[in-house]
Design goal:
265 residues; mainly alpha; 12 helices; 77% helix
Amino acid sequence: MQRDIQEIEHSTPVDKSSILEESLQMSEPATLGNIILSPEKTFKSIRIKPRFITAGLIIVFLAAAFQILLSEKVGAERMLMEQLNAMSVQTKPTAEQIEKYVAQQNSLGIKAIKYISTTFGLIVPILLGGLFYWLGPNAMGGSASFLRGLSVWIYSSFPPAVVMWLANILVLMLKPVEEISFFESRKGMVISNPNYFFAYERFPLLATFFNSLDIFYLWGLVLAAIGIHHVAKLSKKLSWVVVLVLASLGLATRLIISALTGLPQ
């Protein structure tokens, strides 16, 4: 009899904990909407069960869709001429050479390679972001796993990425092709940072810095701090320290690339 009582006493906390976890858990479709409406509850659910596949695929799909639609609208010939002008090439290709290049770029095989490489090129930064959002909180005493860090990175990026890429696709569909520059539009056509107010191509370092003040980017940082606080079990202050340190490292990297290439990042 005494043994039965002891077993019940030991089992009670476990039962309470499991009940609490069940009350916090959300389905994956629910997390996609609640990350906007109730980010704290969503990240508490992600702490229990990391989720990243659906949200990550949506981000990749929208970003890749914009790049593909942009390439198709501008066309291979226009892209070639922009590239030659940017490189200040003195000898221009002949009409026959341009026609041959365009035919090659429009072939099914080349298009497939470009679209696949574009998609995989978007997956790599997502995995790197997950790595940093795993290592960063743990370095400050948090308890994140790689999948939890990856989930925080993806879900903090999800709302701003969806709004941004949908807005860019809409602008792309409405804007006349004559007003579109392929190389200036690759990162988006909606300017949501101070670069809107000056000729940013003349000041690449300043433009790179102003890119870090982008509304969508700052929205993502706020969500990331909330996510690290709930998922990695860090205090709010330490969560912001992690986010700002990682953001500063990213900005420093982009500034170095900008200085070397002469192009805003």
